Amino acid sequence: MISALLDRRRWRRWSTVTGAVAVLVVGAIGFSHTAQAAALFGDDFEDGDTGGWSKSGGTWAVTADGSQTVRQSNAGSENARLFAGTTSWTSYAVQARVKPLSFGSGGQVGLLARAAGSTTFYRLALLPGNQVQLQAVKGSTVTVLGGASRTVATGSWYTLAIEVNGSTVRGTVDGSQAAQGTSSVSGTGRIGLQTVYASAAFDDVSVTTSGTTPPTASPTTPNNPPTTTPPPTTTPPSTTWPTPTGNAPVNNGTIQVTGTFDGGMRRYCCIGDGGQGESQDPVFELAAGATIQNVILGAPAGDGIHCEGNCTIRNVWWEDVGEDAATFRGGTTYNVIGGGARSASDKVFQHNGSGTVHISGFYAENIGKLYRACGNCSSSYQRHVVMDNVTVRNADAIAGINTNWGDTARFTRITIYGDATVCQKYRGVSSGNEPELIGEGADGVNCIYSSSDITYR
Question: Where in the numbering of this chain does the 3-keto-alpha-glucoside-1,2-lyase/3-keto-2-hydroxy-glucal hydratase domain appear (predicted)?
Answer without folding.
Answer: 45-207
